[in-house]
Amino acid sequence: MAILPCFGIFCSLIFLFSMKASLAADTMTTASFIRDGEKLTSSSQRFELGFFSPGKSKSRYLGIWFRRVPDTVVWVANRDRPISGRNAVLTISNNGNLVLLSQTNGTIWSTNVSSDVKNPVAQLRDDGNLVIRDNSSDSTAESYLWQSFDHPSDTLLQDMKLGWDFKSGLERLLSSWQSAEDPSPGRYTYGLDIHVLPKMCTFNGSVKFTCSGQWDGTGFVSALSYTNFIYKQFMTENKDEFVYWYEAYNRPSIMTLKLNPSGFVTRQIWDENSNKWDELFSVPDQYCGKYGYCGANTICSLDQTPMCECLEGFKLKSQVNQTRPIKCERSHSSECTRGTQFKKLDNVKAPDFINVSLNQSMNLEQCAAECLKNCTCKAYANSNVTEGSGCLMWYGDLLDSRRPIRNFTGQSVYLQVPTSESGNKKLLWILVVLVLPLVLLPSFYIFCRRRRKCKEKETENTETNQDLLAFDINMGITTRTNEFGEVNGDGKDKGKDSWLPLFSLASVAAATENFSMQCKLGEGGFGPVYKGRLFNGQEVAVKRLSSQSGQGLKEFKNEMMLIAELQHRNLVRILGCCVEQGEKILILEYMPNKSLDVYLFGM
Ligand SMILES: *[C@@H]1O[C@H](CO)[C@@H](O)[C@H](O)[C@H]1NC(C)=O
Ligand SMILES: *[C@@H]1O[C@H](CO)[C@@H](O)[C@H](O)[C@H]1NC(C)=O
Ligand SMILES: *[C@@H]1O[C@H](CO)[C@@H](O)[C@H](O)[C@H]1NC(C)=O
Ligand SMILES: *[C@@H]1O[C@H](CO)[C@@H](O)[C@H](O)[C@H]1NC(C)=O
Ligand SMILES: *[C@@H]1O[C@H](CO)[C@@H](O)[C@H](O)[C@H]1NC(C)=O
Ligand SMILES: *[C@@H]1O[C@H](CO)[C@@H](O)[C@H](O)[C@H]1NC(C)=O
Ligand SMILES: *[C@@H]1O[C@H](CO)[C@@H](O)[C@H](O)[C@H]1NC(C)=O
Ligand SMILES: *[C@@H]1O[C@H](CO)[C@@H](O)[C@H](O)[C@H]1NC(C)=O
Ligand SMILES: *[C@@H]1O[C@H](CO)[C@@H](O)[C@H](O)[C@H]1NC(C)=O
Ligand SMILES: *[C@@H]1O[C@H](CO)[C@@H](O)[C@H](O)[C@H]1NC(C)=O
């Protein structure tokens, strides 16, 4: 670019027009320019464009500010190229570009309009937008070749849009000043995050610093807002753009949304009476508002102590001296052995949309059903909060959930809660209550049947008198494994009730040498236990429930319950019983080992 000749022309122009002030004008043409000290003023005197020095800085910048509040600069042209002297000028070149020139350094800053422009005009509009347009009759009035609203600094004004222009691929973001005296871009940016569902996020470099909840149609879930009486917010999504903007109800009011050098986004409104800014809010707060303040799988509640807690279904990794962020892991070791319950969390800001799936046509019930199907699904919620529709499911760590301060409205999130330890105990109780009767009832039925048979059999042949002696434990155990199974194929009458063979008192007496003291192993709460010997040399334990102490069916039932449990644990097996002449005798597997004694006698 031929800067020098151009620059020479401007030098002479400066000299030539030095007496001509363009103070009240809002428009620049190729024939006009602005020097340091001069301004463009928008038509109804709301905004001014000119040169300024921030704070104590000596550097000069070209900027835009509210005429009523000159100290609050809302846009800066040469953010990272300060001008050292007061000799710069702004002009519009023949090719339609605004150019900031300094006498010593040439072009400091310039727009980048590349189209062929016949009659370029720059105008400071009354909304604070500095625009370049073609004023020739054949160009459409409202199409701008360039506008400062597309290149925001740290301030969002009314009608300015944050977000994506898909046609140009332009993303409009606020970027913080380096410091109050240095408008060069700092480390913080603020903009519309359109990943999954739209929300506003501030980044510290490439790291999230704070995020709002998702857009709910009039505002952001759980975010502070005054949308009902001070300003309205808008979100537009179509093929051309996906943008956010706002508008005050009282349009002429002076309002800004500013990203300050330390990353805080402040919405303020100018109080005409006291002549100062009124701060509506500043985000984030020092705690929960900060992204992931408490760590993964936590919930942060500003008004609770401790502020950071593990979400339901997660537990602290270690109890000792947890500093923030705390570490929470699933309270269940295996991800897949979770229960089928959901815990509803009311009025919260949902976790960030990382590793989520979204289906906007599903309802909450379908969402729950879908979440249940996949053991990696940790939580679900409605995606459209106001409508109560749509389905969001989280598969990864749950980051950045918080309870909104005071009563700003959040949403409901349903956490998949793994079966807890107490849940397991419950399950055991259910087993005990439901399954044991199932086990015991048939056995009592059999017992009773047997008892009747016993009486019938008393008159039968004497072969039965040797039944226990001739018994084979291993076979008995084999048949016992079929205890709830079908009738044994061997057609024997006993096969039907094979799970509990009934032995004759005579054979039991023979095996225990007529209940001799030598065979007695010990005495438990319900009676003595004897060791019995069978023909094949196998040994059995014979428990003779004492009839003296008035034990009846109830005690027998208790015994059965105990044995049933023992059997369940495979510690001791019941081989059969004998109910004859008022005797109630259990024949048990004999294990010559102390622990068995404990089970047999210690009650
Ligand atoms: C302008 O020129 C001066 C002197 O050469 C130099 O010190 C200063 O850094 C330059 N400024 C810019 C923005 O290039
Ligand atoms: C200006 O725009 C042209 C084309 O649109 C592009 O090639 C060039 O890199 C841009 N220059 C700057 C400084 O952005
Ligand atoms: C724009 O063009 C119209 C006529 O076409 C003219 O009257 C008006 O002064 C022009 N505006 C500027 C700022 O040059
Ligand atoms: C922003 O990031 C920088 C660099 O990682 C870090 O030093 C600084 O503390 C962060 N700021 C805040 C407010 O967290
Ligand atoms: C929620 O659903 C309603 C009805 O379909 C729709 O008008 C509204 O835009 C949706 N809200 C959001 C935030 O998508
Ligand atoms: C916990 O913190 C206290 C005080 O900060 C310290 O005295 C103590 O040793 C810590 N305990 C452990 C287990 O780290
Ligand atoms: C969303 O859910 C509906 C209803 O369950 C289903 O028909 C549709 O295929 C789903 N869409 C996606 C993208 O999964
Ligand atoms: C569970 O969800 C994850 C994440 O969406 C997916 O990769 C996985 O295939 C799903 N598993 C089943 C069984 O649907
Ligand atoms: C999301 O999934 C990826 C891939 O499975 C994993 O590396 C990442 O840690 C997950 N993020 C969260 C927040 O769970
Ligand atoms: C909370 O809600 C109640 C009733 O809805 C309202 O009176 C109160 O002002 C609200 N408080 C805040 C801090 O918004």
TrEMBL record:
<dbReference type="InterPro" id="IPR036426">
    <property type="entry name" value="Bulb-type_lectin_dom_sf"/>
</dbReference>
<feature type="domain" description="Bulb-type lectin">
    <location>
        <begin position="25"/>
        <end position="145"/>
    </location>
</feature>
<keyword id="KW-0472">Membrane</keyword>
<dbReference type="InterPro" id="IPR001245">
    <property type="entry name" value="Ser-Thr/Tyr_kinase_cat_dom"/>
</dbReference>
<keyword id="KW-1015">Disulfide bond</keyword>
<dbReference type="GO" id="GO:0005524">
    <property type="term" value="F:ATP binding"/>
</dbReference>
<feature type="signal peptide">
    <location>
        <begin position="1"/>
        <end position="24"/>
    </location>
</feature>
<feature type="domain" description="Apple">
    <location>
        <begin position="336"/>
        <end position="418"/>
    </location>
</feature>
<dbReference type="GO" id="GO:0048544">
    <property type="term" value="P:recognition of pollen"/>
</dbReference>
<protein>
    <recommendedName>
        <fullName>Non-specific serine/threonine protein kinase</fullName>
    </recommendedName>
</protein>
<dbReference type="Pfam" id="PF00954">
    <property type="entry name" value="S_locus_glycop"/>
</dbReference>
<dbReference type="InterPro" id="IPR000719">
    <property type="entry name" value="Prot_kinase_dom"/>
</dbReference>
<feature type="domain" description="Protein kinase">
    <location>
        <begin position="515"/>
        <end position="603"/>
    </location>
</feature>
<keyword id="KW-0732">Signal</keyword>
<dbReference type="Pfam" id="PF07714">
    <property type="entry name" value="PK_Tyr_Ser-Thr"/>
</dbReference>
<dbReference type="InterPro" id="IPR001480">
    <property type="entry name" value="Bulb-type_lectin_dom"/>
</dbReference>
<feature type="transmembrane region" description="Helical">
    <location>
        <begin position="427"/>
        <end position="448"/>
    </location>
</feature>
<keyword id="KW-0325">Glycoprotein</keyword>
<dbReference type="Pfam" id="PF08276">
    <property type="entry name" value="PAN_2"/>
</dbReference>
<dbReference type="InterPro" id="IPR011009">
    <property type="entry name" value="Kinase-like_dom_sf"/>
</dbReference>
<dbReference type="InterPro" id="IPR000858">
    <property type="entry name" value="S_locus_glycoprot_dom"/>
</dbReference>
<dbReference type="GO" id="GO:0004672">
    <property type="term" value="F:protein kinase activity"/>
</dbReference>
<keyword id="KW-1133">Transmembrane helix</keyword>
<dbReference type="Pfam" id="PF01453">
    <property type="entry name" value="B_lectin"/>
</dbReference>
<keyword id="KW-0812">Transmembrane</keyword>
<dbReference type="InterPro" id="IPR003609">
    <property type="entry name" value="Pan_app"/>
</dbReference>
